[in-house]
Amino acid sequence: MTFSVQVKVMPLKELLDPQGKAVMGGLGNLGLNAITDVRIGKNITLQVEAANGDEARSIAEQAAKKLLANPVMEQFEITIN
């Protein structure tokens, strides 16, 4: 069975997000001052062949830990659609 898996990778909250800060500056220049914080991350879609959802999640988690996310700087969240 094929599962569509979303892996959302975001910088750790404790770390500076230079891309987010740059976007914040741009939003301020556009007069969009109601936005108080921006964090930039990645959304990765995987098509996973697995017997069930738990196996698909496990495979996606291995991919995220080994390649898709840097655990020193990023956290990830997995959603199966």
Structure explained in plain terms:
- This protein is of the alpha+beta class and 81 residues long.
- The chain has two helices and three strands; from the N terminus they run βαβαβ.
- The protein has a three-stranded antiparallel beta sheet with strand order 2-1-3, with helices on one face.
- It is elongated and about 50 Å long.
- The mean pLDDT is 97.
Q: What's the structural blueprint in terms of helices and strands?
A:
Blueprint: E1 2-11, H1 18-29, E2 42-49, H2 53-68, E3 74-80
Antiparallel strand pairs: 1-2, 1-3
Instruction: State the share of residues found in helices, binned by percent.
Output: 25-40%
Largest sheet: 3 strands, antiparallel
Strand/helix succession: EHEHE
Shape: elongated
Structural class: alpha+beta
State the distance separating the first and last CA atoms: 13 Å
Runs with pLDDT <50, length 5+? none
Strand content: 25-35%
Arithmetic mean of pLDDT: 97
Compute the gyration radius: what is it?
A: 16 Å
Number of helices: 2
Largest beta sheet: strand ordering:
2-1-3
Number of strands: 3
Can you give me a brief rundown of this structure?
This protein has 81 residues and is an alpha+beta fold. It is built from two helices and three strands, in the order E-H-E-H-E.
Attribute tags:
35% helix, three-stranded antiparallel sheet, alpha+beta, 81 residues, 31% strand
